């Protein structure tokens, strides 16, 4: 288990990361979210021992994280980079060997990985001849082929189309199911909601949200109501506890001050019987993210 | 060590298969073959010029005939018409008609498509013949003639100072030593530029393409640095081995030829002047010098932010190399206090000191002292470079290499401060 406590990093007078704490169990996925410059990459670099923390503890199974063998760590950096004039197979073998695998062991599983990520082209193709998306998938495979215990993925979904993003989601889940502890960052809250077991949100280097995904959403209560009914916008606004009404395709999104305010709206909306939609939920992760950023 | 080996093999085999390395190896061989070929061709075409001599004076005829050598041969003809016929048949390259009455007068007809006639030599031979004739008219004896034309002799010999003693060196030995030193300096310069550029390119490309971060997750910067250095050194060793084999094969081939086409070149070189001491010293200097430049290339290569800046990374290496190379060129012709000092300064010393030692300007002790200075510098410089390399490779600055270095320096200083981190 990874335990991070009170992690702090300063660059001169600027504090990039301040008092960040979280834990990740084996077989768990943690999403690290935050705006650009919030401190995500700096946190990753400290976890990877590429940067020295000014304060804080990082342990793996109660031992200093720096003692964890580098061969058991997988990392996909935010800035993508491969050797353009090297073949796909040589590229992946090089990273596999750097992580302690024999070339023969890499070759034995290479086709399986290429199939799972549906990489277009032959293993003997030069990387520069692949499309950008396929290059990204090759780099992902290079970061994960040694089945690391601890995986760090910095913006793994950026630049991927929905189909390839789905393949990546499936790949991450497979590693999670195999027992890897995974931490990743993303700006796409859809991906975060889809695969994260828990999340940490950073703002200006500080943790502003932390916990299991559902727990975080529940903190904000079921104050969002999607409704399609005979009630007009003005009628909805007149209910006590309603703080805002916005048009959403065929219905309205009603913002409530308290979840209980939905009861009166439900009664009024269903007076004449069936209505197509009445969905009272907690704010979406995207909405929570925006609220926290703007706070 | 295992991971360093992965980096070593990657650098070695990737470059071994590259066209760049192939050209680094083949380029000088092609150049040497071209120069050798040109020299051989020049020797082949340089044939003896034949000059037909028409004169009524038997003394002149015998003097000219006696002056014949490999360059010009004088053949006596009874008439100008007979000599011209021989020239028309391309048996002669020129016809020299000499009349002795009232005074000696010579006229030369030269074939434009024949072998060139050295007129300076001809003039000298004529003057010599004329002097003999005048001496005969004045009834001077041979001894009187020799006394009249005797000039004071200037005998030159070169010495160098070794442990307070004068060690004599012939001019030929000195020239040969300087030439070998100069060739070595040029070879070092070529190697330095090639391999240092390769190192800068290697690191700059990885950093510029952002693959560095992925690599450094699995391996320490130190292991990566030394893996690369060893890979580059192995490539250099392979090139040296290839050149050794080619030189040996070339030597054997030349021995088997009926006439060594480079024999006239070899007669100008006194290989006895190249001692074993100098050869060992030169090889040691070659190794230390090239390594120092390669380490510098690693440092500058690690400062680039993107692939466009790789050119900037090689500039300091080329500039320093040029400075050393020109220093070697100048010092081959004579030294001065500034050049003396410069020949001990690392980077410049690499090319200058072998020339100075070859030319006998410095003693073996001074040469080995310079090597010692270079070796100590290399160790310290490598240690410092490794320290900076760790911070440089993950530090990106759009403000150019100097700003990148400044930032790296700040990170170094920050890293030296004690940290309360337990992990």
Q: Can you tag this structure with a few keywords?
A:
heterodimer, A: 295 residues, alpha/beta, Rossmann fold, Alpha-Beta Plaits, 2 domains, six-stranded mixed β-sheet, four-stranded antiparallel β-sheet, 10 helices, 34% helix, globular, B: 423 residues, D-Maltodextrin-Binding Protein, domain 2, four-stranded mixed β-sheet, two-stranded antiparallel ribbon, 67% helix, elongated, ABC_transporter-like_CS (chain A), AAA+_ATPase (chain A), ABC_transporter-like_ATP-bd (chain A)
What is the compact description of this entry?
Chain A is an alpha/beta fold and 295 residues long. Chain A is 34% helix and 29% strand. At the A-B interface, strand 4, strand 6, helix 2 and helix 4 of A face helix 1 and helix 8 of B.
Strand content of chain A: 25-35%
Rg estimate of chain A, integer Å: 23 Å
Major sheet strand order of chain A: 6-7-8-3-9-10
Shape of chain B: elongated
- The low-confidence parts of chain B are 418-423
- % residues in beta strands of chain B: 5-15%
Question: In oligomeric terms, what are we looking at?
Answer: heterodimer
**Domains of chain A (count):** 2
Percent of residues in helices of chain A comes to 25-40%
- What class do helices, strands and sheet pairing of chain A give? alpha/beta
The number of helices of chain A is 10
The overall strand count of chain B is 6
Give the termini distance of chain A in whole angstroms: 33 Å
Average pLDDT confidence of chain B is: 80
> Which pair of protein chains has the largest interface, and what are the residue counts?
A-B, 39 and 26 residues
CATH fold-level assignment of the largest domain in chain A: Rossmann fold
CATH level 1 name of the largest domain in chain A: Alpha Beta
Portion in helices of chain B: 55-70%
Which structural class best describes the helix and strand composition of chain B?
alpha/beta
The coarse silhouette of chain A is globular
Keywords (chain A): ATP-binding, Nucleotide-binding, Transport
Protein name (chain A): ABC transporter
InterPro entries (chain A): AAA+_ATPase, ABC_transporter-like_ATP-bd, ABC_transporter-like_CS, ABC_Transporter_VariousFunc, DrrA1/2-like_C, P-loop_NTPase
Organism (chain A): Lacticaseibacillus paracasei NRIC 0644
């Amino acid at each position: 288990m990874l335990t991070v406590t009170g992690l702090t990093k300063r660059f001169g007078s600027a504090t990039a990361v301040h008092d960040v704490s979280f834990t990740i169990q084996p077989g768990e996925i943690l999403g690290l979210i935050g705006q650009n410059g919030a401190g995500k990459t700096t946190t990753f670099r400290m976890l990877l021992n590429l940067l020295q923390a000014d304060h804080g503890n990082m342990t793996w199974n109660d031992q200093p994280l720096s003692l964890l063998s580098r061969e058991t760590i997988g990392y996909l950096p935010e800035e993508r980079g491969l050797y353009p004039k090297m073949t796909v197979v040589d590229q992946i073998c090089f990273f596999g060997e750097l992580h302690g695998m024999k070339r023969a062991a890499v070759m034995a599983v290479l086709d399986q990985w290429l199939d799972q990520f549906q990489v277009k082209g032959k293993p003997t193709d030069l990387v520069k001849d692949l499309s950008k998306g396929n290059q990204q998938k090759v780099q992902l495979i290079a970061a994960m082929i040694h089945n690391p215990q601890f995986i760090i993925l910095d913006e793994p979904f950026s630049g991927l189309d929905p189909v390839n993003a789905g393949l990546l989601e499936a790949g991450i889940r497979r590693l999670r199911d195999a027992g890897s502890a995974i931490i990743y960052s993303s700006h796409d809250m859809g991906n975060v909601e889809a695969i994260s077991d828990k999340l940490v949100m950073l703002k200006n280097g500080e943790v502003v949200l932390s916990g299991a995904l559902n727990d975080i959403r529940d903190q904000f209560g079921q104050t969002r109501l999607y409704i399609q009914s005979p009630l007009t916008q003005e009628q909805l606004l007149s209910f006590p506890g309603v703080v805002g009404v916005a048009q959403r395709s065929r219905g309205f999104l009603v913002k409530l001050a308290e979840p209980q305010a939905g009861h009166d709206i439900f009664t009024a909306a269903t007076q004449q019987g069936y209505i197509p939609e009445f969905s009272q939920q907690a704010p979406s992760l995207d909405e929570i993210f925006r609220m926290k950023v703007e706070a | 060590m295992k991971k360093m080996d992965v980096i070593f093999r990657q650098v070695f085999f990737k470059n071994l298969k590259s066209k760049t390395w192939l050209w680094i190896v083949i380029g000088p061989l092609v150049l040497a073959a071209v120069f050798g070929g040109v020299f051989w061709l020049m020797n082949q075409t340089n044939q003896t010029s034949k000059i037909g001599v028409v004169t009524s004076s038997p003394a002149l005829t015998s003097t000219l005939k006696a002056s014949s050598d490999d360059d010009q041969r004088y053949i006596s003809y009874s008439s100008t018409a007979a000599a011209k016929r021989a020239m028309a048949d391309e048996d002669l390259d020129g016809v020299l008609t000499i009349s002795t009455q009232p005074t000696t007068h010579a006229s030369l007809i030269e074939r434009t498509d024949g072998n060139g006639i050295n007129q300076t030599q001809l003039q000298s031979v004529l003057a010599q013949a004329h002097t003999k004739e005048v001496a005969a008219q004045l009834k001077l004896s041979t001894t009187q003639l020799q006394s009249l034309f005797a000039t004071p002799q200037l005998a030159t010999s070169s010495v160098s100072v070794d442990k307070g003693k004068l060690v004599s060196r012939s001019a030929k030995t000195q020239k040969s030593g300087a030439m070998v030193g100069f060739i070595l300096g040029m070879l070092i310069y070529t190697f330095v530029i090639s391999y240092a550029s390769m190192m800068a390119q290697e690191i700059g490309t990885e950093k510029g393409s952002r693959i560095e971060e992925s690599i450094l997750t699995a391996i320490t910067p130190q292991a990566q640095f030394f893996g690369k250095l060893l890979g580059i050194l192995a490539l250099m060793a392979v090139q040296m081995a290839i050149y050794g084999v080619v030189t040996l094969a070339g030597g054997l081939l030349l021995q088997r030829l009926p006439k060594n086409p480079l024999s006239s070149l070899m007669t100008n070189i006194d290989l006895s002047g190249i001692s074993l001491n100098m050869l060992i010293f030169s090889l040691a200097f070659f190794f230390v010098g090239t390594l120092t430049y390669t380490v510098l290339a690693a440092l500058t290569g690690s400062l680039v932010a993107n692939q466009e800046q790789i050119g900037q990374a090689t500039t300091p290496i080329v500039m320093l190399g040029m400075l050393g190379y020109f220093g070697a060129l100048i010092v081959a012709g004579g030294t001065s206090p500034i050049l003396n000092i410069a020949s001990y300064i690392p980077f410049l010393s690499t090319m200058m000191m072998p020339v100075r030692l070859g030319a006998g300007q410095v003693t073996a002790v001074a040469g080995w002292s310079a090597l010692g200075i270079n070796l100590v510098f290399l160790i310290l410089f490598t240690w410092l470079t490794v320290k900076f390399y760790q911070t440089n490779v993950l530090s990106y600055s759009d403000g150019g290499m100097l700003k990148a270095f400044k930032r790296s320096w700040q990170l170094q200083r920050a890293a030296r401060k004690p940290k309360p981190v337990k992990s």
